[in-house]
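Hi P.,

Sorry for the delay on this. The queue was packed all week, but I finally got your sequence through. Input first:
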Amino acid sequence: MRTYAISLDAPQRLPGKKHPRIFTGKKADLYNWYSNLLQTYKDSVILFLQHEEFTADRLRKLRLDIVTAAQRSAPSLANPTLEASSSLPTLTVVRTNIFGVALRDRAGIDKSAVKKMVKGTKGSFALLTMSNFHPPQLKAILAAMAKSAPPKKPKSQEEIKQEQAAKNADPAQPGRRVKRVRPIRTPELKVVGALIEDRVYIKEAVADVSNLPTLDTLRSQIVGLLGSPASQLAAVLAQASGGSLARTLEGFKKGLEEEQSKQL
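Then the structure:
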């Protein structure tokens, strides 16, 4: 089975060609689709996912699990005319080599950061696009994906030996065709990184970003920080208003005179 990695290297001219390879037909359509997708979600969220052993049915279930988690933690819509479906994520399986070209041609992207994010990751890729950056929703989606397709447990040395022995064993009935046994597929899904508001995040940073508070929470915290010193000053001035101000200053003056007399 051939595996590919996302490559952002400069295009090379094929032997006997004057120009680098140009996509045509269906590949050109895919290139344009991926380019539009990268531009459309430039200021929102694009998760890079690496997947293995997914059947069509399991992909449908994964999409359903993601949408269900997103709906449960969706942000409140300030604009009543905005459709709720616009805030739901979309999972898109991509052709790795063509998507790599579209990503390379994307203007303004930090290519060195992207190379660091996808370095050494091979296999099938998918993109999870979200029109709104809402940390609680992102956290819920990450949890739903981990539950829907948990990481595979590494095989023990004993299991590897048993599989190798079964593969090399003589057939039970020599001369007869061995019945083909269809292997059981165990889907696996890994988060490679993300483009969030046009910034590149590696896998570990994506989890950190999902734990951030919402924008409304941050705004209230900032307002609280700005309002706290003002409220304290207002309380002091209110306490020292009118005749209290004179008494406060007089008490402060007496305190200074007593300390000066003690020193003499």
